[in-house]
Fold this protein.
Amino acid sequence: MRYRPEIKEEARRQLRALGKEQRRNIGRRLDALQNNLSDDVRKLTAKTQEYRLRVGTLRVLFTLEKDLIRGVCCERSQGSLWVTLSL
């Protein structure tokens, strides 16, 4: 199944605040997710469609709605810094 990410303007602003390399890595990983949900993707709970994608020290949390990848937030794995991403 082919998935399509939905990225809102607010998320674009927040992504621009990240470093260039982090933005590239997240972009590559979101592109790869369109064809395959394997790799560093984990389902967070059995009852919901919430998933986590690991990108270096960042974790991108998202939900699946049929063929749509909708992001929730991005966090650093070693700290409590949260960057909200409305993908």
Q: What stands out?
A: Residues 8 and 24 are 17 Å apart (CA to CA).
